[in-house]
């Protein structure tokens, strides 16, 4: 039996809906062996982020060494990296171990508005991580911050942002449309040559905590199992749409998505 492996380098969400918890659940659901390197702990629930405790960079490096020198991985996803020292540490290790399938989710702000990346670190994301990325997956506000564009609302503006991020080194760019307002939510994939639109019904729900983490983790799982980027992104879109459309309804705020909905969708047991 071939075991496909994926590693998430991200923050912990004590509420279980985002961060490494969402990533590991997604890896498991997609049949991939999941591993995790913690960059920060958050005291977090569906109502917001109540505290952030960054992990010392030396210990992040030690976790990456431990996993990559022994088990190895078929794909890496990064999420919350919090500051520029952590970004530089992670970039150095990705290069040292010659990581191939790298999904960069440029996490900046939690749904409730809490910062998960200090503002000064945006330059480090562009300088150290974008050039290593097989796929980068910004939402609309993140794409604006990374590109410096004044607004990204239309398809043409999404395309312009994708081209800039590709020019700056990312091999593929997915601009996520979750933060838009249309009844159809459209993500845009760009590979440097052509654009592919991935559309789905927009669900009017507040249970969208961790959608970005789950989507990027699903792309990493697809790449780890040998899919090409287009196939992996398409599968991730189906996975996240299923997860959003069958909410669990837990907590008092922005609840988590349903990570087992994709697997159980055909069984009326979601
Ligand atoms: N209400 C919704 N209905 C359907 N699909 C959605 C909805 N919200 C987000 N999505 C999809 O979920 C995925 C993640 O997009 P989104 O823009 O929410 O990411 P994000 O803002 O990075 O998430 P996070 O809050 O976890 O950081 C995309 O594929 C997007 O199209
Ligand atoms: C730990 C963590 N990573 C990412 C996000 C973004 O959803 C979050 N809320 N918490």
What's the short story on this structure?
The chain is of the alpha/beta class and 270 residues long. It is built from 9 helices and 9 strands.
CATH fold-level name = UDP-N-acetylmuramoyl-L-alanine:D-glutamate ligase
What's the helical proportion of residues?
25-40%
Task: Give the CATH H-level superfamily.
Answer: Ribokinase
The global form is globular
CATH class: Alpha Beta
The ligands found in this model are:
adenosine-5'-triphosphate, 4-amino-5-hydroxymethyl-2-methylpyrimidine
The ordered H/E elements are EHEEHEHEHEHHEEEHHH
Distance between the termini: 29 Å
What does this structure look like?
The protein has helices spanning 19-29, 57-70, 84-96, 122-129, 140-147, 155-167, 211-224, 229-245, 261-264, and strands at 5-13, 33-45, 48-54, 75-78, 102-104, 135-136, 172-175, 184-190, 195-201. The two termini are 29 Å apart. It is an alpha/beta fold. Helix 3 links the parallel strand 4 and strand 5 (102-104). It is globular, with a radius of gyration of 17 Å. Helix content is 38%, strand content 21%. Helix 1 (19-29) crosses helix 7 (211-224). The mean pLDDT is 96. The chain has one domain (5-264): 3-Layer(aba) Sandwich (UDP-N-acetylmuramoyl-L-alanine:D-glutamate ligase). Strands 3-2-1-4-5-6-7-8-9 form a nine-stranded mixed β-sheet, sandwiched between helices. Bound molecules: adenosine-5'-triphosphate and 4-amino-5-hydroxymethyl-2-methylpyrimidine. The site of 4-amino-5-hydroxymethyl-2-methylpyrimidine has 16 residues, from strand 1, strand 2 and helix 7.
